[in-house]
Write a structure and sequence with these properties.
Blueprint: H1 3-23, H2 34-40, H3 43-46, H4 52-55, H5 76-89, H6 93-118, H7 127-137, H8 142-146, H9 151-172, H10 178-195, H11 202-214, H12 224-230, H13 232-255, H14 269-272, H15 276-295, H16 320-340, H17 344-353, H18 377-395, H19 400-420, H20 424-434, H21 439-451, H22 455-468, H23 473-485, H24 489-502, H25 507-519, H26 523-536, H27 541-553, H28 557-570, H29 575-587, H30 591-604, H31 609-621, H32 625-638, H33 643-656, H34 660-673, H35 678-690
Helix pairs in contact: 1-6, 1-7, 1-19, 6-7, 6-9, 7-18, 9-10, 9-11, 10-13, 11-13, 11-17, 15-16, 16-17, 17-18, 20-21, 21-22, 22-23, 23-24, 23-25, 24-25, 25-26, 25-27, 26-27, 27-28, 28-29, 29-30, 29-31, 30-31, 31-32, 32-33, 33-34, 33-35, 34-35
């Protein structure tokens, strides 16, 4: 084995070890933040039988691309990866994080290969290795690696870097079979784009690298005809890549039906601004902030919206000098590259800037800063940093000390940040230090507290979110829902109407207003609110379910049944709708319908104890005791601390005959769990008296 090959293997092993050291301690935890909407609640992921043709009609969040509220984030291959994983090992956050970790490690190895392909190391300092090492441990990547939705970025990066490597390999191997290579490059770029939109820039990067590496720009002093003659083959290649890139862009726009997505103003205040000056200055400041996060990744937050970054509205803003520093630094680097005739700097800048183009603000996006989107741009910046350290170390080996210090600090920061991504509570509270004026941070803490039953915290944080951003309609709606749960219906309605006043086409607010009105027995107003919610969102399963509840209140069970059935057609995993249908059949004594409907429900919700319980009761009424017993045992295994299930199994044994001992055992077990369960007490006394 050659020494060069041995050295390469050692470098790969070190990168794998560095990746494991950075992330290995945080590959567990729960689904956090966007994971919930994109994976846990996404029926395209949950239903493993969803065909790929359906994925091609939906966005990343499971909504129809034609839906006016869709953000047009078309990533069907990323969604398919989640669906396949669910099919093989189920939805397990820890397993999915481990897959992300493996993908990140693969990207790190590909990045090293890319550096080695673009630049040949010389001297003792291995620039490619150190650049790849910094990339591997960089804290800015934590969201993409440990946040499960970051898989789209990881898979897109693998496709992106593969395109660059294939193109460079083709150039160095004689440029033959171009008729096959160009379609292959186009296909790989499309695949990368179908993982995430960033992949669309892969061919642009190929063309830019080709131009920067092969054209001798000092020949521009010659005539234009001589320049074309000298670089004809390169310019033809770049033109071909430009046409293919344009084709990829047209394909992406066609998928969006050539319609731009609609975002809420609070998602990206810069994009929503009406002032061109404010847009330019604020967007330029965002460039600086993104650059600073790459250089000094201390300020990391899951979200940067709602007051996190005030607009730059004046040339006298204190942030203007930072913008000047950024643009000045870029110009200085380009000038330095020209003076030293070194193409490392310009190539690094190209690798940093090109994959950032989709998020640069030319096209309006639904975020202010997204740390995941810095995953690919960091490929260029990490090599730029390593190049700078190499020049310093050539002067003195003492500069190895700051390089090792930076790598160590990056590893420690990545470990700390990865740990914060293991739970929503840690993640949301970590953002309070970085973005203390971000109302969305407090909103998410309140939402989590609501789920955990901590109403005091929820009330406090929702109110603080509204103090920071009075026009935060989602906070008003959720605060209204909290007041409704406390039976404070007047206050609840006030907040819900405020949410609608802020944003009238808000289907969730209309539905929740209808729930409050129904609780007041104002059926006509509730019906109008539900209908408005369904106008805005026709396939709104929760609203259909609540509309069914309204008709039950109006003693119209046939209409209630109709709307509950519509709810499960829209969302077959709507457990409450199934439960209400089964309860209605039970009240009417339709036992056979319960058995038939519960069998269908269990194909979507195989472990739903409420459905299993109703089904077990139905079999018990039909005298099919063994089947009922098996179902009760399954329920008790899943919920061993639920006294009612034990008590009903006791009733089954009571009816069965010759099973009195088992019935007494189950009644006693139920009373140990709930000493006040009257039915278990009564039935136990009857059995004891009969004995």
């Amino acid at each position: 084995m050659s020494s060069l090959r041995q050295q390469t293997i050692v470098q790969y092993v070190l990168l794998v070890a560095a990746s494991l050291l950075s992330y290995g301690g945080a590959l567990y935890g729960t689904f956090v933040f966007d994971d919930s909407a994109a994976i846990v609640k996404n029926m395209d992921v949950r239903n493993v039988k969803t065909p790929f043709t359906t994925l091609l009609q939906h966005d990343f969040w499971g909504n129809n691309l034609t839906d006016p509220t869709s953000h047009k984030s078309f990533r069907p291959l990323a969604v398919l990866s989640y669906q396949l994983e669910n099919r093989l090992i189920g939805l397990n956050a820890g397993h999915m994080k481990k897959v992300n970790f493996i993908l990140h490690t693969i990207v790190c190895l590909l990045v090293l290969k890319l550096y080695q392909t673009l630049w040949r190391d010389s001297g003792h300092f291995r620039t490619s290795f150190w650049a790849a090492f910094v990339f591997t441990v960089h804290p800015i990547h934590t969201e993409a690696v440990v946040g499960i939705v970051g898989r789209a970025d990881l898979l897109a990066s693998i496709g992106y870097i593969t395109v660059l490597l294939l193109y460079q390999r083709w150039l160095t191997n004689g440029r033959r079979y171009g008729v096959l290579v160009y379609p292959a490059l186009f296909l790989l770029t499309v695949v990368s784009m179908l993982f995430k939109e960033t992949g669309i820039t892969a061919l642009v990067a190929c063309g830019a690298i080709d131009l920067l590496k092969r054209i001798k720009w000092h020949h521009l002093q010659f005539s234009f005809r001589d320049f074309l003659s000298l670089h004809r083959s390169c310019l033809v290649r770049v033109f071909t890549l430009a046409c293919l890139s344009l084709g990829t862009l047209v394909l992406r726009l066609w998928i969006m039906d050539f319609e731009s997505p609609k975002f809420h103003r609070m998602d990206n205040p810069i994009g929503a601004s009406n002032s061109i000056t404010t847009k330019i200055l604020s967007q330029s400041y965002l460039y600086w902030l993104n650059f600073w996060l790459l250089v000094c990744p201390d300020w990391l937050s899951f979200d940067w919206a709602l007051g996190s970054i005030p607009l730059v509205e004046s040339a006298f803003d204190w942030r203007i000098p930072l913008i000047c520093v950024l643009y000045g630094a870029i110009l200085a680097l380009v000038f330095l590259s020209k003076e030293s005739k070194s193409k490392e700097i310009t190539l690094s800048l190209a690798l940093a800037i090109i994959p950032f183009l989709p998020a640069c603000g030319i096209v309006r996006v639904g975020f202010v800063i997204a740390e995941r989107l810095l995953y690919l741009p960091s490929v260029g910046l990490c090599y730029l940093l390593a190049t700078g350290y190499r020049r310093l170390i050539k002067r003195s080996i003492v500069f190895y000390v700051p390089l090792c210090f930076v790598c160590t600090m990056f590893i420690l920061k990545t470990q700390s940040r990865a740990y914060e991504w293991t739970s929503e509570d840690l993640l949301f509270r970590s953002a309070m230090r970085v973005c203390p004026r971000n109302a969305k941070v407090y909103y998410n803490i309140a939402r989590l507290a609501t789920d955990q039953g901590d109403r005091e915290t929820a009330f406090a944080f929702y109110r603080h979110a509204i103090e920071l951003h009075p026009e935060y309609e989602a906070a008003h709606m959720n605060l209204g829902n909290l007041h409704r749960e406390m039976q404070e219906l007047d206050i609840a309605e006030r907040h819900l109407r405020k949410a609608i006043e802020i944003h009238e086409p808000f289907p969730s607010a209309w539905m929740n207003l209808g729930i409050v009105q129904a609780a007041r027995k104002d059926h006509l107003a509730a019906l109008a609110s539900y209908q408005r919610a369904l106008e805005l969102k026709p396939n709104y399963a929760n609203c259909l379910y609540n509309l069914g509840n309204l008709y039950i209140d109006k003693q119209n069970s046939s209409m209630a049944l109709r709307y509950w059935r519509e709810a499960i057609q829209q969302n077959p995993r709507h457990s409450k709708a199934w439960a209400n249908i089964l309860a209605l059949y039970d009240n009417r004594g339709r036992t056979e319908d319960i058995i038939r409907t519960s069998a269908l429900a269990l194909t979507f919700l195989p472990n739903d104890t409420a459905i299993l319980f109703t089904r077990a009761n139905a079999f018990g009424k039909l005298g099919q005791y063994e089947t009922a017993e098996s179902l009760y045992r399954q329920i008790i295994t899943a919920r061993p601390d639920h006294a009612v299930y034990r008590a009903n199994l006791g009733v089954l044994y009571h009816r069965w005959g010759q099973k009195k001992a088992q019935a007494i055992e189950q009644y006693r077990a139920a009373l140990r769990l709930d000493p006040n369960l009257r039915s278990a007490k009564t039935n136990l006394l009857k059995l004891m008296d009969a004995s």
